[in-house]
């Protein structure tokens, strides 16, 4: 087989001296050698984490050549004994620093790196340029007890939406059932304190800088949300920016931000809306007992859901539509009073015992906005909810509502809820209606939550456009009764509404000093013509009322 020469001198159209040709060839080879050395240096610097392993391998080879195999056996015995003591005394740190790191290295090399190019090509994530292929670069793999978190760099010409669409293909290609795609860093910047805080902040500024071309993939090896989450401990003092309500799919505690926001909970029947409400009330229980939080509850279903925890509520209505409207209007009045106090002083209300955080809990908001038979009461409720949702977040008057149907014609104030939680839904389109357009493409498969996954939901976390999958804790009836008995709300004196007497309206006169009967707007008009009414007025005698 004849191969083409390295330099085809016959292609030169002009005669050139041989020394010049060899000089140009030598310079070209030296240039390519310099490029290779630079690339090798960049590779070595980029993979600095492998330096200790390479050094240990070289040292082991040198020791074996000099002393044989017995030093390696001695080191192995010592390391095994030290690992056993470490595992016995500090099991959590041993798993975190040793076991999980070994699992990360193993899965990076055997599961992901071995078939990376094949999976990327078959999933359509490889870009073609200048006759070659540009493959997404795998940067790191970090394993936990249930998940694998991959950090990769996208090729030029891609955006995170492409990876959202390919998430299910990636999951099944790597042997899992769930793959979550995040376009931003999942872990916040740590808060540094101490003597070296200034230096560590400078390091964090480089480590946690914004990287638009990086994408985080989370593969769920073992779904921890298939099991019921036990009730979490009650915080001694509730942190309204981080209330523990359940577990995330990476086994981290899901902390919910309630301060200065309204919450809409959507889910089909028996999919766990009560788990969200009672988990929230359990996290607020210490504040309820101290008076820092006041919960006003409305249960349009006649108390079937909230009546069991009646001692937790400062105000509670479940059987009178008019009283429900009065409660919401009282919340509006409390909001107006705080506006007068905080105007020009603060933009966000800080809860205190004297001015507590008021949380209005509505179990089924659709019954008040769409299915209420009394149109006048329904109009009062709609107006009061509109004022609360548009103005009450910063004033410490919050609304937490649940619904089965998130459609706009059913929940007309749906767009006024900043925070939304999607439990199991019956229709595919309800996901985007509840969480926003494109939420399902970004991974919120709420319509695929099985009936066994009660309490599993998709929520939007602060600073992340992709919804997170969590499972809220389940509180049995006995636990709710014990919670209500342990953390009862202090009594709240409710002033009786003052009924202003309305002045009687002057009746119309026909010009003769006699009053003419005219029907009020709430009465049905008599079926008599005006001429006959005037005749009746003229036939009255002795100045008495018309007959």
UniProtKB/TrEMBL annotation:
Taxonomy, superkingdom: Bacteria
Protein name: Cell division protein FtsK
Pfam families cross-referenced by the UniProt entry: FtsK_SpoIIIE
Spans through the membrane: 20-41, 70-88
Matching PANTHER family: DNA TRANSLOCASE FTSK, SPORULATION PROTEIN RELATED
Species whose genome carries this gene: Micromonospora chalcea
Biased composition range(s): Low complexity: 524-540
InterPro entries recorded: FtsK/SpoIIIE/SftA (IPR050206), FtsK_dom (IPR002543), P-loop_NTPase (IPR027417)
Coiled-coil regions, chain positions: none
Keyword Nucleotide-binding attached: yes
GO BP terms in the entry: cell division
Alphabetical keyword list: ATP-binding, Cell cycle, Cell division, Membrane, Nucleotide-binding, Transmembrane, Transmembrane helix
Region (Disordered): 487-547
């Amino acid at each position: 087989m004849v191969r083409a020469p390295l330099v085809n001198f016959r292609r030169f159209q002009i005669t050139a001296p041989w020394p010049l040709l060899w000089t140009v060839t030598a310079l070209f080879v030296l240039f390519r050698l310099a490029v290779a050395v630079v690339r090798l240096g960049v590779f070595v610097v980029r993979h600095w984490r492998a330096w200790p392993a390479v050094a240990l391998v070289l040292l082991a080879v040198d020791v074996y050549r000099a002393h044989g195999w017995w030093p390696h056996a001695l080191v192995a015995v010592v390391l095994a004994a030290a690992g056993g003591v470490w595992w016995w005394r500090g099991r959590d740190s041993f798993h975190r620093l040793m076991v999980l790191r070994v699992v990360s290295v193993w899965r990076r090399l055997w599961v992901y790196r071995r078939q990376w190019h094949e999976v990327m090509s078959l999933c359509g994530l490889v870009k073609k340029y200048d006759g070659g292929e540009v493959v997404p670069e795998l940067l790191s793999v970090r394993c936990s007890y249930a998940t694998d978190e991959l950090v990769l760099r996208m090729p030029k010409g891609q955006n995170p939406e492409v990876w959202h669409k390919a998430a299910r293909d990636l999951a099944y290609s790597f042997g899992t059932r769930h793959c979550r795609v995040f376009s931003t860093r999942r872990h916040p910047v740590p808060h540094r304190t101490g003597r070296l805080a200034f230096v560590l902040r400078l390091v964090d500024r480089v480590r946690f800088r914004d990287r638009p071309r990086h994408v985080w993939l989370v593969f769920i090896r073992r779904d921890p949300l298939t099991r019921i989450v036990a009730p979490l401990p009650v915080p001694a003092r509730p942190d309204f920016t981080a209330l523990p309500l359940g577990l995330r799919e990476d086994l981290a505690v899901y902390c919910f931000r309630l301060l200065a926001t309204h919450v809409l909970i959507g889910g089909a029947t028996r999919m766990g809306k009560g788990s969200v409400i009672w988990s929230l009330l359990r996290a607020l229980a210490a504040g309820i007992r101290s008076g820092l939080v006041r919960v006003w509850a409305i249960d349009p279903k006649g108390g079937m859901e909230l009546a069991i925890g009646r001692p937790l509520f400062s105000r509670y209505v479940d059987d009178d539509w008019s009283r429900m409207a009065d409660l919401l209007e009282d919340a509006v009045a409390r909001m107006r009073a705080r506006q007068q106090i905080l105007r020009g002083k603060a933009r966000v209300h800080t809860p205190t015992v004297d001015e507590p955080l008021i949380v209005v809990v509505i179990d089924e908001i659709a019954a008040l906005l769409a299915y209420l038979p009394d149109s006048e009461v329904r109009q009062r409720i709609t107006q009061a909810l509109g004022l609360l949702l548009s103005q009450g977040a910063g004033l410490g008057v919050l609304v937490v509502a649940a619904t089965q149907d998130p459609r706009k014609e059913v929940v007309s104030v749906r767009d006024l809820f900043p925070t939304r939680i999607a439990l199991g839904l019956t229709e595919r389109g309800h996901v985007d209606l509840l969480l926003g357009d494109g939420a399902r493409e970004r991974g919120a498969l709420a319509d695929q939550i099985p009936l066994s996954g009660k309490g599993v939901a998709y929520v939007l976390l602060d600073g992340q456009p992709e919804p997170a999958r969590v499972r809220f804790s389940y509180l049995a009836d006995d636990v709710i009764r014990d919670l209500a008995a342990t953390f009862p709300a202090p009594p709240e004196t409710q002033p009786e509404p003052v009924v202003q007497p309305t002045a009687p309206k002057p009746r119309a006169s026909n010009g003769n000093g006699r009053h003419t009967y005219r029907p009020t707007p709430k009465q049905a008009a008599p079926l008599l013509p005006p001429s006959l009414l005037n005749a009746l007025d003229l036939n009255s005698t002795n100045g008495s009322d018309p007959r």
